[in-house]
Amino acid sequence: MDDRRFDSLAKSLAQGASRRTVLKGLLGLSGVAAASGGLLTGQARAARRPNTPTPAPIRCPGGQRASGNSCVCVDSNLSTCGPACCNDHVASGTQAYSECCDNACCHGQCYGEELCCAWPNLFCEAQNECCTPDKHQCCGSEGCCDTECCPAANGAALCCEGETPRCCAGDTCIPADGCCSDAECGGCQSCQNHVCVDNSDNCVGCLDCQQGSCTVDDANCDDGDPCTIDTCNAADGSCAHTFDCTLIDDDFCCPGETCNITTGSCEPIVCAHIGEACTDPDDCCSKVCMGGGSGGRCICLPDGSLCESDAQCCEGGPCVRSDPTAQFGNCASVCNPVNAACAINGECCSTICSGAGACICLPDQSLCSSDASCCSGTCHRLDANDEFGQCIP
């Protein structure tokens, strides 16, 4: 292309001719007319254009609409974010919440270098990381926990792990089988130092806590009476004390009566009369059952007979003993006065049967065993527990 043709091309472009028309003129002689015609046509059109062009209307993306010279969200509850609309008017941390993050909506929380921590993940500021749902979320300065997070009472926090993977809120990390409260323990157990232990205070009355259940313990009903059977009621924890005279010797449980071994209760003694059948002395009310067994008969002992008690003697006693500590004595109906003949001390009614066979009393200063044996005064003992004393007027 020579310099003149280049200058012509430049001039035509400067005057507003289209590139296509100008290029046609460059193709040869036959195109000169076309180029000339085109150039004149372009000049005519340029002459008809107004000096100020008409502005094109605003075109808004997605869910936005034009409002004056700007785009706004069609839903007035949403906020524009580049070409998008974000729902930041609801509570954060919910599925519906979104916020603007680098001209795009983050359905969660925007953090770091315009990064989005999408719901249900949780942003953990302490370590500038995003905690995923499979973790136990943000744990204070610990960051995201693989295990349970335990917020302590002093505001600190700890990731529970190893041998203590569980958390008691506001307390500490504990073993997996540990407890935080009584409610986590079964039955009557209580949580003590994060361990479930039996606690009988959680049972009523006589019931005891054993292996987590309130169970009967009859020992809690012991009334100290050997003649009763003590039982604990499983329904309400109350105690029952059932009398049973067969539990111990009937003379203990039934003093003055007899024990019915069938019913376990005490019954009045029905005495056989003299001459009636008996099997043991109790049948004869302290008289003597002579013979015993099926052929026994109740008898009384005449004067002079060997006896153990006054009741065995026919005249009602006394059963006189030469030695007050002796088991046996002799039945004597009447006491002999002083100076009367005697064979044993008992015949003299507490005075002394002398070696000469006469009842005598002891003069003053004599050794004595009772006041009655002294002629006058009393039998004075230096010690009240002494067997013998001295007659003093």
Give an overview of the whole structure.
With 393 residues, the protein is of the alpha+beta class. Among the domains are: 59-120, no CATH class; 182-215, no CATH class; 220-268, no CATH class. The chain contains four helices and 33 strands. A three-stranded antiparallel β-sheet has the order 23-25-24, with no helix packed on it. A hairpin with a 2-residue loop joins β17 (208-210) and β18. It is rod-shaped.
Please name the defining characteristics of this protein.
393 residues, alpha+beta, three-stranded antiparallel sheet, 4 helices, rod-shaped
What is the secondary structure topology, with strand pairs?
Layout: H1 3-14, H2 19-25, H3 30-48, E1 64-67, E2 70-73, E3 79-81, E4 84-86, E5 99-100, E6 105-106, E7 108-111, E8 115-118, E9 122-124, E10 129-131, E11 149-151, E12 157-159, E13 166-167, E14 173-174, E15 189-192, E16 195-198, E17 208-210, E18 213-215, E19 228-232, E20 239-243, H4 250-253, E21 257-260, E22 265-268, E23 277-278, E24 288-290, E25 296-299, E26 306-307, E27 319-320, E28 329-331, E29 352-353, E30 359-360, E31 367-368, E32 378-380, E33 389-392
